[in-house]
Design goal:
By secondary structure, this protein is of the alpha/beta class. The protein is built from 9 helices and 7 strands; from the N terminus they run αβαβαβαβαβαβαααβ. The chain has helices at about 5-10, 30-40, 55-65, 75-90, 115-140, 165-185, 200-210, 210-220, 230-240; strands at about 20-25, 45-50, 65-70, 95-100, 145-150, 190-195, 250-255. Strands 3-2-1-4-5-6-7 form a 7-stranded parallel beta sheet, with helices on both faces. Helix 5 links the parallel strand 4 (about 95-100) and strand 5 (about 145-150). Helix 2 (about 30-40) crosses helix 9 (about 230-240), helix 4 (about 75-90) packs parallel to helix 5 and helix 5 runs parallel beside helix 6. The structure holds nicotinamide-adenine-dinucleotide. Nicotinamide-adenine-dinucleotide binds near residues 74, 104, 123 and 198.
Length: about 260
């Protein structure tokens, strides 16, 4: 099994993001929330954008005056603009977008309904694109040489049973990441994606603890699933000076699952 390091060891890596401001969609829970904790530990400010009406309280509890939460739906254009305005009002500038809001819904390809397909694509792909478009336009207009990280999945590069809409959305994330990176390099904006395997968030534990998860782990060279901080640290690295030459990349964080 590949060793994993303690959460404290990972969280104490210094990636030089002090004073930067990161907008994190889906920041109230799971990978987005862990990423917010990582950025706060770096001395960055965070703007959590999430459906959860408690998101501002969650933000304040985590980061005090270095964090705000803006509740709403990333599928709504006015809300996306509102998040940027609130972030600028609170912290002066937005340097980073982490596009993390997403849902998983499973259905066999032969019976999936149009509504089910559209909902999955709308939240996981379209809203992520339009959020990146809004933040990218803000960065271009204001001369911010920022960084955008879109959360894809191993499902974006391989087939997974009952994941047809999810795989299509995540494959789309990887493709749109390349195009935005190509078009926005001239503005000094880097755009990358990360593609995790199963991540042991609260939901991940619920879905994968037990025999089905144990069988899946045997297929992963690492012989384990990912911890949320292992995704947060890679996202933060992609936003750091150490990744200055990385753009348009999809970084698999899958313990080797997709090698075969
Ligand atoms: N957990 C995994 O195993 C795993 C693996 C690979 C990729 N991912 C991807 O990582 C991202 C986060 O997943 P997670 O496991 O942390 O999920 P999660 O369910 O724990 O958290 C998702 C957060 O996004 C918010 N959200 C959902 N829809 C929203 C919307 N329309 N507008 C605003 N906020 C919304 C939710 O309220 C929630 O706080 C997703 O894009 C998911 O596809 C997860």
């Amino acid at each position: 099994m590949l060793p994993n390091f303690s959460k404290e060891e990972i969280m104490s890596l210094d990636l030089g993001l002090k004073g930067k401001t990161a907008v994190i969609t889906g920041g109230a829970a799971g990978i987005g929330n862990e990423t917010a904790e990582f950025f706060l530990k770096q001395g960055a400010n965070v703007v959590l954008a999430d459906l959860n009406p408690e998101v501002n309280n969650i933000a304040k509890e985590m980061g005090g005056d270095k964090a705000i939460g803006v509740a709403g739906n990333v599928c709504d254009a006015e809300y996306r603009q509102h998040v940027i305005e609130e972030g600028v009002k609170a912290f002066g500038q937005i340097d980073v977008l982490v596009n993390c809001a997403g849902i998983v819904a499973l259905e066999s390809a032969e019976i999936i309904s149009e509504d089910f397909w559209n909902r999955t694509i709308n939240i996981n792909l379209s809203a992520s694109f339009f959020m990146a478009q809004a933040v990218g336009k803000y960065m271009i207009d204001n001369g911010v040489k920022g960084s955008i990280v879109n959360i894809a999945s191993q499902a974006g590069v391989i087939a997974l049973d009952k994941h047809v809409a999810y795989c299509a959305a995540k494959g789309g994330i990887i493709a749109m990441t390349k195009v935005m990176a190509m078009e926005w390099g001239k503005y000094g904006i880097r755009v990358n994606a990360v593609a995790p395997t199963v991540v042991l968030t609260a939901l991940g534990h619920k879905a994968w603890d037990g025999p089905v998860g144990d069988a899946f782990k045997k297929e992963i060279p690492a012989e384990r699933f990912a911890e949320p901080e292992e995704i947060a640290a890679v996202i933060a690295f992609l936003c750091s000076k150490g990744a200055a030459m990385i753009t348009g990349h999809n970084l698999l964080i899958d313990g080797g699952y997709t090698i075969k």
